[in-house]
Amino acid sequence: MGRLLSAAIEVFDQRGYHATRVDDIVKVANTSHGTFYLYFTNKEDIFRALISDATSEMSRLAESLGPLGPEPSGRDELRSWLGEFATSYQRFAPVIRAWTEAATSDASMRSSGEDITRAFVKMFERQIRCGTPTDLDPRTASMALVAMIERSFYYTLRNREDPINASVLNTLATICHRGLYPGS
Amino acid sequence: MGRLLSAAIEVFDQRGYHATRVDDIVKVANTSHGTFYLYFTNKEDIFRALISDATSEMSRLAESLGPLGPEPSGRDELRSWLGEFATSYQRFAPVIRAWTEAATSDASMRSSGEDITRAFVKMFERQIRCGTPTDLDPRTASMALVAMIERSFYYTLRNREDPINASVLNTLATICHRGLYPGS
Amino acid sequence: MGRLLSAAIEVFDQRGYHATRVDDIVKVANTSHGTFYLYFTNKEDIFRALISDATSEMSRLAESLGPLGPEPSGRDELRSWLGEFATSYQRFAPVIRAWTEAATSDASMRSSGEDITRAFVKMFERQIRCGTPTDLDPRTASMALVAMIERSFYYTLRNREDPINASVLNTLATICHRGLYPGS
Amino acid sequence: MGRLLSAAIEVFDQRGYHATRVDDIVKVANTSHGTFYLYFTNKEDIFRALISDATSEMSRLAESLGPLGPEPSGRDELRSWLGEFATSYQRFAPVIRAWTEAATSDASMRSSGEDITRAFVKMFERQIRCGTPTDLDPRTASMALVAMIERSFYYTLRNREDPINASVLNTLATICHRGLYPGS
DNA sequence: TATGAATGAGATTTCATTCAT
DNA sequence: AATGAATGAAATCTCATTCAT
């Protein structure tokens, strides 16, 4: 069963979610179809087992980002948090790659990811509402910034560059912080 | 053949790229499998025929965005351009929805989209390099901003909200412009 | 599809309902699995298609038996009706054989047969209620007599004897008539 | 092993013979596949072990019915014997239910039941041959009566009604006795 | 041009049975 | 005696594609 899980990670990452056949996983795990169906009901089932670790860790991280404040130290705190997030993201890279694919075609696969996004957006929104008044709508701006972070991270992942580098992290932190506290 | 194309748009949008079977398209088009294969070699073929309109129009648009300048008028120009882009994007919504799904699992499907992204990024990069020096890496910052626009548009599309509203467009234009010209 | 249906009759009769595999039918019909699933959703589906002719004809027959009367002519009428019923029964023998098997394990397969039984029982019951008072409960007696007919016919079918012979028909008619009109 | 047997009775009765998997029995018995195959060679094996009690008891009963005689006391004797038989039948209801199913698809499962039927038919036949001459063929009439009893009992069993009531027993005894001794 | 019945390769899934511990 | 993870043969089912008409 452990063999099946690691084989699944490998195959899902190599061939992608849709192109992966139960048969591929079974072959790489060097076991039988019978064994596969002993532990998992189907391809989706083993996949969900695979992503649950990644999503729960990233959910936890998303909730952990506290209030930032307009000072440069706020920016640095965000930067450091983005670094942590990036580390997790990279660590689960093979799974997240396939998951993004699955989530694009299946709404129910998206839900855990949307929780993460939501937590993130809320935190940003709070920052903006508490800070200097701005002409931007707090919710819209937060969503835009989260979209930026999410998509930038994914680009790196998709192009199989590793790791998400300091320049990207700095840039994201700066643009976000500027977005949250326009004067700064 | 026209019937096949419009049926395909409908079915791809309803069921998504992977879940769509040639049979579904043929049924909605009220024609036969034989006819389908008379005009298209397979599912991918008709799909590419479908997206080519959308991608070529959007490529053209991406190239059309000229130098912006740091003044508020630059921001307004960007805003107005984003509005145009959003209009196209919405117009092709059903196709883009399915295309995003296909592109996530198939690199060769991505290429036309990447052309658009690239053109966009280059333009932004030029702006930053010509403008006030900034501590942000021009290429990285440009990519982040393009990622933000792309993803924000896609969110609206995915949630089947219509249209991309003024608040989103203003927010994106403002954050981008601020990103390009930090002082402004 | 006609080939599939006649192949199915043959195979179901030879191997029985449970032992029959879609593969067996396909092989005898000299066609492919694809073709099978083009016309039928599964083994049960083709089976139901097969029995519907038999059950509808026999339902019609069951309804057609009119009031009998206590005189010997009543007995003869019943006798003649049983002969007709037996002819139908024999004609559909291969299907009924497999159907009895399927019905024993699957309640939903039984329903059409139960309709026939019910119609039959009702008719007998009416006879008894209208005739000379008897110490037997009309409904119970009717059910017993129908059970006798049904089971006697089935024995012949199961042992692949053909046809249900005159002696059996006479015996059943006599016992039934005596049951309905004790004095006669 | 006792646990396996009682679990088997329960599962065979709930799911029926064909739908029962060894796995179901093992789970209900709260033991392992290994243990199952230690005591039984396969599903059929445990099933035969299960029905042997029922069939041997009922065989014994079938043989125990003595000559009846044309007087009312003959009818009463039959009635009382049917009562005993019904009691056994009900006692083994769960097993007989599944057995009927198995017997319908597998001739070798039928044999023990056919012994019972045969003994029963023979006894009836003897009655008729020794009694007043009748226009009915003794063997055919006997088989019809046995078919009636057998099927009537089974109906009660199948519809999970309990127990076979006095009215049914009286009716069967009366119709049989009348069949055996037409004048009576 | 147009048809649609037929195909068959390949994917998924089940379950009786074994065997090392 | 007892276990239960592992097996694999065999079954079910899907769907892109072809081809005779």
Describe the structure.
The structure is a homotetramer of 184-residue chains. Chain A has 184 residues and is mainly alpha-helical. Chain A folds into 2 domains: 40 residues, Arc Repressor Mutant, subunit A (Orthogonal Bundle); 130 residues, Orthogonal Bundle (Tetracycline Repressor, domain 2), CATH 1.10.357. In chain A, 78% of the residues lie in helices and 0% in strands. Chain A contains 9 helices and no strands. Chain A starts with a helix and ends with a helix. Chains in contact: A-B, C-D. At the C-D interface, helix 6, helix 8 and helix 9 of C face helix 6, helix 8 and helix 9 of D.
Q: Please tell me what the overall shape of chain A is.
A: elongated
Oligomeric nature of the chains: homotetramer
| CATH fold description of the largest domain in chain A | Tetracycline Repressor, domain 2
Per DSSP, the total helix count of chain A is: 9
Q: Any idea of the CATH class of the largest domain in chain A?
A: Mainly Alpha
CATH superfamily of the largest domain in chain A: Tetracycline Repressor, domain 2
Structural class of chain A: mainly alpha
Q: Could you say what the CATH architecture of the largest domain in chain A is?
A: Orthogonal Bundle
Q: Can you write the helix and strand succession of chain A as a string? A: HHHHHHHHH
Number of strands of chain A: 0
Largest sheet of chain A: none
What's the Cα radius of gyration of chain A?
Answer: 19 Å
Q: What is the percentage of strand-forming residues of chain A? A: under 5%
Q: Mean pLDDT of chain A, rounded to whole units?
A: 90
Helical residue percent band of chain A: over 70%
Report how far the terminal alpha carbons of chain A are from each other: 53 Å
Could you say how many structural domains of chain A there are in total? 2
Low-confidence stretches of chain A: none
